[in-house]
Amino acid sequence: MDFAQYFSENHSAVLFVIAAISLAVELTIIGLSGPLLFFALACFTTAFLSHFGVVNSWESETLSVGLLMVFFAAILWKPLQAFQNSGGGPDTSSDMIGQQVACTQEITQTSGNIRYSGIQWNARLAPSGQNSGIAVGEVCVIAGVDGNVMLVQAIQDTGNTR
Predict the structure, then answer these.
(1) Hey, how many other C-beta atoms are within 10 angstroms of the C-beta on 21?
(2) Which of 14, 63, 94, 140 can pair with 152 through a Cys bridge, CB separation 3.0 to 4.6 Å?
(3) DSSP for residue 120
(4) CA distances from residue 74 to 26, 56, 96, 150 in whole angstroms, order as listed
């Protein structure tokens, strides 16, 4: 028996393979963003329904995949969005954190610049800082990193006296 004949007689096997491939691509390449996850869950559920004879034609299986995909999207969209947006907290892994640096452009809640290791860095005030701004020439401390922006605090906000 060849593969084509086997898959034409066993729709559930085709759906299980499609579900597995979709889930693998979702988890390894896309990164749990949703669309292929919903499709994989719908294919997997439809494969079970097909295996037990609840749906028994390609037309009903296609309809089932479509309806189940919408169902899973409606049920899982908000929890997945909350999971993705939960973040991991501030980045504390950088070796720049704790370093004292000079302010080269006034630092506010939204913008500013510092000079560290001979490089101009974008900076803004760390959310935990009590200061409303840091003037040019003042020394501040790097409190965190947000992408390529340094989160800084005035020295009196940190309690450091180095």
Answers:
(1) 13
(2) 140
(3) E
(4) 18, 26, 43, 38
Same domain? 81 vs 113: no
Query: What's the rounded Cα separation, in Å, for the pair 18 and 71?
Result: 19
- Sorted by sequence, the CB contacts under 8 Å of residue 105 that are 6+ apart come out as 111, 112, 113, 136
Which of 85, 114, 142 is at the close of a domain?
Answer: 85
Answer whether residue 93 is part of any domain: no
Question: In terms of domains, do 61 and 7 share one?
Answer: yes
Provide block-wise average pLDDT over 10 residues at a time, the chain (162 residues). 74 89 86 81 93 88 93 88 68 78 92 90 84 87 87 73 46
- Residue 12 and residue 15: Cα distance in Å, rounded? 5
- Judged by DSSP in three states, 118 sits in coil
* CA 89/CA 56 separation, integer angstroms: 49
119-125/139-146 β-pairing: unpaired
Domain that holds residue 107: 100-158
Q: How many structural domains is the chain composed of?
A: 2
